[in-house]
Amino acid sequence: MQLSMGIGYAGDHKKAATRVRDLEHAGLDVAWVAEAYTFDAVSYMGYLAAVTERVQIAAGILPIYTRTPSLIAMTAAGVDNLSDGRCILGLGASGPQVIEGFHGVQYDKPIGRTREIIEICRTVWKREEKLTHDGPIYRLPLPEDQGTGLGKPLKLINHPVRPSIPIFVAALGEKNLEMTAEIADGWLPIFFIPEKAKDVFGPSLDAGFAKRDASLGQLQICAGGPVAIGEESEVGHLRDNSRPNAALYIGGMGAKNRNFYNALVRRYGYEAEAAKVQELYLSGNKKEAEAAVPQELLELTSLIGPESYLKERIQAYAEAGVTMLSIAPIGPNPVETVEKLKSWIS
Question: Among 21, 157, 167, 334, which residue has the least CB neighbours within 10 Å?
Fold first, then answer.
């Protein structure tokens, strides 16, 4: 099991990069760089490539609507080159409020787009032939009746460091997860509960695995949560730190009838609680929405408690198929936390 962390997209990026370097020395395997409607992720990934030596530098995630498929491939190949083969390409659809509101791009066909983008990226990286793609969404070169007619097949000028860069997909919906299990290298779930994963995600994963090319190997799964090590009386209250974020996602991320995170929590069996959180959040009662987040959900999606308990939770993640433990250390010394967790999973 590898150890990974999300790197915040707010604050001082240079100070954060220094911390990533310290975490790398402590044993961190993967640093995920998010991209919301803030500074882009790729600039920072390039900076991290220059100041680190071993840690994998991952986009977590690049929204599929904000770049052409070829540019996504070029970008990942560029970071992979700067980092000597340490890039991971994380892809996701984001949501219509961000894509249509901030980027002004129609939010449509997320599963089909993701599939074709992955196909195009892998073609670009291999450079075995000039790029052509005749899909229902993307057609390369652009057909004559859709442009000037001057487009021609081209090949990436540079030779990529690797002919295949790992692609992880942030998937929640059943069909999207099935596609991820079929063609992606890894999966980025959210609110992952090991004990409920098989019932909630199993059918989609199995359907995808049945069509998976054996050459892709095992699907990597990156999941985890906040981490604090100590006696329950000392650290148990820290689970409540996740309430604002959980309420935001369950209650306010997306429209009332199109909130993927709310739908997931309902699938976990918290139908009434998810409905209440959303109703309170959308009506402006954010504190009440935070209080309505199920305590059990917070516990099962975190790693907070004594060493013996955390080791049990890590084992539960491993048994659920998690190959990359994602952590968010709470406290003044994340480096020490990484060192301790790394010693447990090595």
Answer: 157
- Within-domain flag for 318: yes
Query: Which CATH number is 156's domain given?
Result: 3.20.20.30
Residue 37: which residues within 8 A CB-CB, separation 6 or more? 98, 102
Per the domain annotation, does 281 fall within a domain?
A: no
Instruction: Spell 291-307 as b/e; 16+ CB within 10 A means b.
Output: ebbbeebbbbbbbbbee
Given this model, what pLDDT does residue 248 score? 96
Q: How many domains does the chain have?
A: 1
Tell me the Ramachandran region of residue 115: left when phi exceeds 0, alpha when psi lies from -120 to 50, beta otherwise. alpha
Report the distance separating Cα 25 and Cα 244, nearest Å.
Answer: 32
18 in a structural domain:
yes
Within a 10 A sphere around the Cβ of 248, how many other Cβ atoms?
Answer: 16
Grouping H, G, I as helix, E, B as strand and the rest as coil, residue 26 is helix
- Please give the residue range of the domain that contains residue 42: 2-230+302-345
Q: What angle do CA 302, 200, 111 make, to 5 degrees?
A: 100
**CA 135 to CA 137: how far, in whole Å?**
5
| Cα(27)–Cα(247) distance, integer angstroms | 32
The pLDDT assigned to 10 comes to 76
> Is 215 contained in some domain?
yes
> Residue 253's closest CA among 29, 38, 1, 36?
36
3-class DSSP state of 329? strand
Tell me if 64 sits within 8 A of 35, measured CB to CB: no
Q: What angle do CA 161, 346, 1 make, to 5 degrees?
A: 60
CA dihedral over 318, 324, 329, 333, signed as positive or negative: positive
How many CB atoms sit inside 10 A of residue 47's CB? Answer: 18
Pairing assessment for the beta strands 2-7 and 30-33 based on DSSP bridges = parallel
216-256 per-position pLDDT tens digit: 999 999 999 999 999 999 999 999 999 999 999 999 987 78
The identity of residue 153, as a single letter, is: P
Map residue 134 onto helix, strand or coil: strand
CA atoms of 102 and 88, how far apart (whole Å): 25
Q: What is the maximum alpha-carbon separation in the chain?
A: 69
- In the block, tokens 């907070």 appear at 304
